[in-house]
Specification:
The chain is an alpha+beta fold. The chain contains nine helices and 25 strands. This is Cupin domain-containing protein.
Length: 429
């Protein structure tokens, strides 16, 4: 495969060295508007261009690594998409949230792989921390706290630019470690950024940050304290401690923890035809939190962030207007009418389907079972005879019948009016 690296500034030079040393299997070309870089690249035998479009047309790369300054991200991403090229882009996605929404929407509509090179979650200790949380080491999560203090020497950031340049990493870690989204957020900043967040499942989170701090510096991922119903986890100075009523455990070595780099994950996702771990559609939620933090600072109040979760508009389907089809149901009597309103692919939970069924007089749903699934009948109109595990029960409007795993059941309309019912099935979690 051939990669086009666009951008050879401080970050781009680091990417260049890593690609050359860790991915010798990749062909590489470079584009940067600074002509003075040409001699060095050509000495390495790497094609160099000052124009990214010319580089794409002449080198015909398989994908683009976008390491340009933030203000240039959108233009380079669009250029790559014009040629249907997958993109691995340095964070943030774009120079502001509105442009990030726009570029992610285009990648989704045109089905172009688009991943953000988030690296904090790839650190082996953070991978271990995630493993411990998922294994239930502290039980049900209750709170997450992160403190990040550094004295930034090299680059003077504009006010609040640290949101997209630095704090976005910690937003990603918060969502990654908790497995939950942020629902509400309140931010203040004087000398220190202080952000308080309410997550799904009642989890509380807080983040304190300064890039102008004296004294002990935290590592770049920050110091973390994670409280759960069974204990707590701390991450500080590259070490993890787990404290429970049974005692304390410490991890200082993480050589056995798989920790693929962002580029390794991107290449694996391309080869396996799947979304990358930090796919841009997912990573957009991190840039949304930067956007909502800025809104909270401007408005001086708590803001609701749930619109950024990416669930899209409500999916409303009308069972009264749906076209029903006749069929014999589970070997029952006569032909019943029904329509599958939702299938398993429409749900994110173990729900399997939702039907609207109409049983004309004299018809039935045959006696049957669903192994480990549960099936629920909600009777809207009509009356009949429901058989559950060999026992007949009279049912009518308003009745809700739960058929548990391995139970047998059937429904006969022995009345003079149609039975109308909503039926849905839930699989084992």
């Amino acid at each position: 495969m051939k990669a086009l690296l666009v951008g050879m500034g401080e970050a781009g030079s680091g990417w260049y060295r890593r690609v050359r040393s860790m991915h010798s299997e990749l062909e590489l070309a470079v584009s940067d508007p600074d002509e003075s870089r040409r001699e060095r690249l050509l000495a390495d035998g790497v094609p160099f261009y000052t124009d990214a479009k010319e580089a794409i047309e002449r080198e015909k790369p398989d994908f683009v690594i976008n390491v340009t300054p933030r203000r240039v991200h959108t233009a380079i991403n669009h250029l790559a998409f014009d040629y249907k090229l997958p993109v691995l882009c340095e964070k943030p996605i774009a120079e502001n949230y509105e442009k990030a929404l726009e570029i992610v929407k285009r990648a989704e509509e045109e089905r172009i792989p688009f991943m953000i090179a988030e690296n904090y979650r790839t650190f082996a200790p953070l991978r271990k921390l995630k493993q411990l949380i998922e294994a239930g080491a502290v039980g049900e999560l209750q709170s997450l706290e992160c403190e990040f203090f550094r004295k930034r020497q090299k680059v003077a950031l504009e006010p609040n630019d640290e949101l997209e340049e630095v704090i976005i990493h910690h937003f990603d870690l918060l969502r990654h470690l908790s497995g939950r989204e942020v629902g509400k957020l309140f931010a203040v900043k004087r000398h220190v950024f202080h952000i308080v967040m309410d997550l799904q499942a009642g989890i509380q989170a807080s983040f304190r940050c300064s890039l102008h701090s004296a004294g002990r510096e935290t590592q770049w991922p920050g110091d973390w304290r994670i409280e759960g119903a069974k204990g707590s986890l701390t991450f500080k100075d590259g070490e993890i401690e787990l404290t429970t009523p049974e005692g304390m455990q410490r991890w200082t070595e993480f050589g056995d923890v798989p920790a693929p780099t962002a580029l390794q994950e991107f290449l694996a996702a391309l080869a396996e035809n799947r979304r990358g771990e930090t796919d841009a559609k997912e990573y957009l939620k991190n840039q949304a939190l930067a956007h909502y933090t800025r809104l909270s600072l401007q408005q001086g109040r708590q803001v609701d962030t749930s619109a950024s979760w990416g669930y899209g508009p409500a999916d409303i389907r009308n069972f009264l207007r749906a076209e029903r089809k006749p069929s014999q149901s589970h070997g029952g009597i006569g032909m019943v009418e029904g329509v599958r309103l939702f299938g398993q692919g429409d749900f994110e939970t173990p729900l399997k389907f939702l039907y609207y069924s109409v049983l004309p007089p004299g018809t039935s749903i045959g006696y049957h079972g669903h192994r480990e699934d549960e099936e629920i009948y909600i009777l809207l109109e009509g009356a009949g005879l429901m058989t559950i595990n060999g026992v007949e029960t009279r049912v009518g409007p308003g009745d809700i019948v739960v058929n548990k795993p391995w139970w047998k059941h059937g429904l006969l309309n022995d009345g003079s009016e149609p039975i109308r019912a909503i039926v849905f099935e839930v699989g084992k979690a």
